[in-house]
Every structure is written in C-alpha cells, then in structure tokens.
Amino acid sequence: MYDMNRVENAVSQTDIKIAARGVQVYYGDKHALKDVDVDILDKTVTAFIGPSGCGKSTFLRCINRMNDTIPIARVEGKIALDGEDIYDRRVDPVQLRAKIGMVFQKPNPFPKSIYDNVAYGPRIHGLSRNRAELDEIVEKALRGAALWNEVKDRLQEPGTGLSGGQQQRLCIARAVATAPEVLLMDEPCSALDPIATGQVEELIDQLREQFSVVIVTHSMQQAARVSQKTAFFHLGNLVEYGETDDIFTKPQDSRTEAYISGRIG
Amino acid sequence: MTDMPMSNPVSGATKGTLMQPDARTRRRNAAEKRFRIYGATAIGIAVLALVVLLFTIFRDGSGAFRQTYLAIPVELNAQVLDPKGNRDPGEMSKVLTLGYGKVLDAAVEATVARENIQIEGLTEAEIKGLISKDASAQVRSRVLADPELVGQTIEVDVLANGRVDGYFKGRVTLASAERDNNTSPQQLMLADELRDRGLMVTRFNWHFLSNPDASDQRPEAAGVGVAILGSLYMMLVVLFLAVPIGVAASIYLEEFAPKNRWTDVIEVNISNLAAVPSIVFGILGLAAFINFAGLPQSAPIVGGLVLTLMTLPTIIISTRAALKAVPPSIRDAALGVGASKMQSVFHHVLPLAMPGILTGTIIGLAQALGETAPLLLIGMVAFVKNFPASPPEGLFDPASALPVQIYNWTQRSDPAFIERASGAIIVLLIFLFCMNLLAIYLRRKFERRW
C-alpha cells in the first residue's frame, strides 16, 4: 500500500504534486515538446488541451515515463513527483508506474475476466496477502470506478465483453486498484458515446478527492466541465496554464483565444 | 414518358435509363464475371489435382496394408534345429535361417502333399518358393524365444511370397507370371488351390507398421517400423531444440532487442535462411555434425539437428508475426499498471500470441517431418534393419525416416515396393494430417478476442 503519511506531508508542505521544469522531448529529429514548465496540484483535475500533434499526449506520457518504451524518444529536463526527479538514474520506471496510473484513449482491458483485470496490478505489486484482501481491493476499485453494481454478478466474465463505456471504467478501476497517487488519462472519452462520457466525467470528479488527475482531451467542453486547471499546448509549446475558468473566459494569449473560439485546431 | 431535356450536372456522363446498364457498367460487370470464373477454375484445378493425387496414392498404397499369409503346420525337427539336443538358446542360435529354411520347405511340401493338390508341371522349387524368404527368419526368432518348441509341430502363419501376394491383390496375373523368372502360372494356380482350402488368406497387415525394412528379395516383409521410429526421434529432437530456441529468439528480437543495424541484419538473415534450399542444410549437417563433431551417420540426432536448423527460421518468423499481431494497447495497459517489460510479455502478450506460435510451430514440425533431401546427405538413406534403442541412447543408433524410406523404396526394382512406397506415403500423409488437425484444434482452443 502506498504511504499515506508521505502524501499527507507533501500536501501539508505544498500542494504541488508534480513539478516539471524545462521538459524537452525529441522523437528522432522532431522536437515534439519545447521547454515545458508546469506545476500540477494534488487533488485537482488538470486538463491538457490543444490541437492534434501539439504535444499534450507526449507530455502526459512523460509523467509516467511511458515514452521510455518508444526507442527514438528522448526526454530532457526535470519532472519531480513530490520533489523527487522521476528521470533520475536511480528511479525504476516500473515502480514509478505503480504510483502514477494511466488510462488510455481506447479502452484496453486485458482479455481476461473482469476480476483478473482489476486484480492484476495488486497481484504483481503484492498489495494483498490473501484472497479476501484481494477481493476487497477489487470491490473497492470497481466501486471507485462506479462499475461495481453493473458487474458484481459477473466478475468472472471476460472484461472484453463489456460495452465501450464499461470497458473504459474497468480500465479506470484497474488503474485505481494499485492505489496510485496520480492518475493520467489520455483522451479517455474519445471512443465513448455521450452517456458513457457523462459517467466517466462524473467519475473523474469523484476521483479528484483521492488523488491528482491529469486528463488530455480534445473537447474543450469536457475540459471546462471536469477540470480546475487547464494547460493549453500549441506546436510543442505550453502556451498558457491557469485556472480553467480564466483560460476559457479571459485567455491571456492570442493563440489560446483563437483555439477556444474555434479559429485554430 | 416524355423525353424532357435536362441539364446534366456531371459533364461527360450521358443521361440514360436505369433499366439498362450502360456500356461502361457492362464492361465492369463482364470483367468481374471473368475474374470469378478464373478463380473458380483455379480452385477447380487445385481440387482436381488433390483428388487425383489422393486417389492414385490410395489405389497403389492400400495394398501395403493387406498381406497374404500361409497357415501351415511346421514340424520343428530337433536334429536340424538343435543338433546338440540341450535346448540352449546360445547353442541354437548357431543354426542360421538356412536350417529353418529346410524345415519350412519340408513343411510346405508336406502340406501340398497332404492336401493332395495335383498341378501339371509344378516343380519342387515352385512349391518351396510359395512362401517368403523371410519366413525362415520369422520361425527362427519364434523358436529362439521359446526353445521348448523344438521337436514339436507348431501352427504358423508364414508370409507368402511377394508374387503370390501380388497375385491376390491383382498386381500379378497368370499372363505376367508366364514371363516372370520369379514365379510361374503353376505356382499361382497352387496358391489358388490353397486359398480355396482356406490355408492361404489375405488379411490386414499390422506388420507393415511395425516391421523394419527388408531386402530387395522380400518386399512382402518390408515395413515402416524403423522409419516411423526414426522420424519420431527426429521430431523429438526438433521439438526440444527448435521450439525453445525459436520462441525465445523471437520474443527477444520482437520485444526486447534494441532496433538497430545489428538486429536488422539478423532479421534479414533469418528471412534468407528460411529460403535456403533444404539440401544445403544437409551439406551443412554433414560438414558440421558428422565430419567435424564426429556424430554417427544415419543417426536421428544428426537428422534432428539438421531439421532443427531448417525449422528454426520458420518458427521464428511465424512466432514474430504472432507477437506483432498482439495489439500494442495490451502492452501499454500492462506497463501502465506498473508491470515490468517481462511481466507484460509473459502475462499478456505471449498468451495472446500462443495460437499463432503453436500453429507456426506445428507447421514447421510438419515441414520437417516431410523433409527428405538433407537426410539423404547425412546417411539416413542407409538400409536399416535394426530398431534403434529407446532415447536418449537410441538417438545415436542408425535409423531411417519416413520420407527417405519412401524415396528408398521407389528406387527398387520389384514392383511390390511401389505398393510399399505408396503405403508409406499414406502413413506419412496421415501423420501430417493429424499434425494439421492438432494445429487447428490448438488455434481454436487458445484463440481469444480482445
């Protein structure tokens, strides 16, 4: 289980969960992300918006070092989680990803039972001592993802048999089950219909009480609905970062204004 | 309907009725129709070829599974078979098949005399020649196994001569016997008489599957026993070497290896190896395993090693294709919950790739099972009469292999061996068919949606 004391200490000292300084990302020759500085607050939903190819997903994948899996990607700069640089040589990305959960654009449940999908993370991290504890973690995670009532009678059925929205909530449950400190969501609703999107958005609002949520979205309405902080990316630059209300009502930068009014993107 | 002039929005297209296709549509439809006919013809030709192939093989080869036997009482003369009279198997083994031949000759002649068969011009040699030259070895091994039989009269089913057997299967006729030095119409008439009396019967021949090869003179005794065992041993070697090496190599190359010039070179060379003619692997095996490493000739271990080299590229290519087909989202999902690279591969990617890996492996094994050319070069074409011992020692004993045995038999002059060769082809085809069935079954069983 993750260390509650440390999180609480961190919060009491400062609300900053993740601090990024001078982050540069190169894909081969392509300079995908240029000198990004940003502070992500704890127990807050932060939305990354911007047109396609602006670097918002790239930055998201830097936070849990998923870019490590792309051979040509190179990351420079510092990203600190609770003051510890996650790109330090001593940091094991596998351990890091247990603390920073991720939900992907397309629902990608494992082709296993619903139960095994959620139990996989706790199992590999040894979060439970016995079956009863594991059952408890799975139930808690599924409740946390607002899926428990729909699947409690068919936990042994394949996760791939659920509807798209249910699958995405299953993926959220899977990420929540490892008790992360930050949850990264890469356009989690882009493959979902409006009703499922509404459910997931409601869920995001609840998850904020437990940890920091970072969501990449194409939909400005969604960013406005779910987030407290918004960052606008454009052509690899972080153009503007601030309170969501401010970004959408009185943007400081002309590019932000152009984007939210639909003139670029 | 009145023909109203209408402005046409698409320039060049002419206004027409939908009830009649225009020239362009007609041409396209005709092209499509032609293509369908080509396709159906191609499939028809393929099916016809397959039917003809199977028909000829079964027509020629089914005879190998039936064999003619002569049931006669044999008096095991103690004076001939155990001159010292002490029933010691060691002493008795000094009496060779020649001695048993005499005993059998007497038994056949006695049977013909007892049944009172009179045929004009039937010579003594033709009566003796009724049974297989292998019959004496048959009786000898039975007596050596049980020395107490000496002195008694036992009922034995001895193999009939290949020509007599061929006569009952329609391969030999009275007319062809006229011109044949190895048989005569009189001998065949005698065989007819014996059959009418129920002494000579043609029945299912399990010995074809269990007997070793036999010499040119006795096709009736030849079987595929040693060849099946040799092929089985080689498949064991391939299974235990090619599958782990191939699958491990593919997993490493596909999932772990850095993508750089070296892995590109390796990848290209694996593809090239898959296209290398199999006989080249035979030369490699001869040079590396027999001449350099000093492994014995004709041994299944060498055959297995050569076939392993040959099968590896097939297994690696199909395994990599199966791994590539697993959606990357599954890998991301596993890494996203904090699984290590190895956990993501072994917990998620490998189970999903399993049906493809198994199919590729079995297809590779089936290919190896039917491979002939490299085995010729490492001496597996030798005439092997003794069964290899059980593994692991048996892997170093000389053995044959099914496809080589087929090749070997087609080289022999006696037409009875054509029947044997076709019979062996049927055995080989049945094995291949079973392996493919297994591949399909495993694919169905492990296939999962994602």
UniProtKB/TrEMBL annotation, chain A:
<dbReference type="InterPro" id="IPR027417">
    <property type="entry name" value="P-loop_NTPase"/>
</dbReference>
<comment type="function">
    <text>Part of the ABC transporter complex PstSACB involved in phosphate import. Responsible for energy coupling to the transport system.</text>
</comment>
<keyword id="KW-1003">Cell membrane</keyword>
<keyword id="KW-1278">Translocase</keyword>
<dbReference type="GO" id="GO:0016887">
    <property type="term" value="F:ATP hydrolysis activity"/>
</dbReference>
<dbReference type="InterPro" id="IPR003593">
    <property type="entry name" value="AAA+_ATPase"/>
</dbReference>
<dbReference type="GO" id="GO:0035435">
    <property type="term" value="P:phosphate ion transmembrane transport"/>
</dbReference>
<dbReference type="InterPro" id="IPR017871">
    <property type="entry name" value="ABC_transporter-like_CS"/>
</dbReference>
<dbReference type="GO" id="GO:0005524">
    <property type="term" value="F:ATP binding"/>
</dbReference>
<keyword id="KW-0472">Membrane</keyword>
<dbReference type="InterPro" id="IPR003439">
    <property type="entry name" value="ABC_transporter-like_ATP-bd"/>
</dbReference>
<dbReference type="InterPro" id="IPR005670">
    <property type="entry name" value="PstB-like"/>
</dbReference>
<dbReference type="Pfam" id="PF00005">
    <property type="entry name" value="ABC_tran"/>
</dbReference>
<keyword id="KW-0813">Transport</keyword>
<protein>
    <submittedName>
        <fullName>Phosphate ABC transporter ATP-binding protein</fullName>
    </submittedName>
</protein>
<keyword id="KW-0547">Nucleotide-binding</keyword>
<dbReference type="GO" id="GO:0005315">
    <property type="term" value="F:phosphate transmembrane transporter activity"/>
</dbReference>
<feature type="domain" description="ABC transporter">
    <location>
        <begin position="18"/>
        <end position="260"/>
    </location>
</feature>
<keyword id="KW-0592">Phosphate transport</keyword>
<keyword id="KW-0067">ATP-binding</keyword>
<dbReference type="GO" id="GO:0005886">
    <property type="term" value="C:plasma membrane"/>
</dbReference>
TrEMBL record, chain B:
<feature type="transmembrane region" description="Helical">
    <location>
        <begin position="301"/>
        <end position="323"/>
    </location>
</feature>
<dbReference type="GO" id="GO:0005886">
    <property type="term" value="C:plasma membrane"/>
</dbReference>
<protein>
    <recommendedName>
        <fullName>Phosphate transport system permease protein PstA</fullName>
    </recommendedName>
</protein>
<feature type="transmembrane region" description="Helical">
    <location>
        <begin position="232"/>
        <end position="253"/>
    </location>
</feature>
<feature type="transmembrane region" description="Helical">
    <location>
        <begin position="349"/>
        <end position="370"/>
    </location>
</feature>
<keyword id="KW-1133">Transmembrane helix</keyword>
<dbReference type="InterPro" id="IPR035906">
    <property type="entry name" value="MetI-like_sf"/>
</dbReference>
<keyword id="KW-1003">Cell membrane</keyword>
<feature type="transmembrane region" description="Helical">
    <location>
        <begin position="421"/>
        <end position="442"/>
    </location>
</feature>
<feature type="transmembrane region" description="Helical">
    <location>
        <begin position="35"/>
        <end position="58"/>
    </location>
</feature>
<dbReference type="GO" id="GO:0035435">
    <property type="term" value="P:phosphate ion transmembrane transport"/>
</dbReference>
<dbReference type="Pfam" id="PF11812">
    <property type="entry name" value="DUF3333"/>
</dbReference>
<dbReference type="InterPro" id="IPR024573">
    <property type="entry name" value="DUF3333"/>
</dbReference>
<dbReference type="GO" id="GO:0005315">
    <property type="term" value="F:phosphate transmembrane transporter activity"/>
</dbReference>
<dbReference type="InterPro" id="IPR005672">
    <property type="entry name" value="Phosphate_PstA"/>
</dbReference>
<comment type="similarity">
    <text>Belongs to the binding-protein-dependent transport system permease family. CysTW subfamily.</text>
</comment>
<feature type="domain" description="ABC transmembrane type-1">
    <location>
        <begin position="228"/>
        <end position="439"/>
    </location>
</feature>
<feature type="transmembrane region" description="Helical">
    <location>
        <begin position="273"/>
        <end position="295"/>
    </location>
</feature>
<dbReference type="InterPro" id="IPR000515">
    <property type="entry name" value="MetI-like"/>
</dbReference>
<dbReference type="Pfam" id="PF00528">
    <property type="entry name" value="BPD_transp_1"/>
</dbReference>
<keyword id="KW-0812">Transmembrane</keyword>
<feature type="region of interest" description="Disordered">
    <location>
        <begin position="1"/>
        <end position="25"/>
    </location>
</feature>
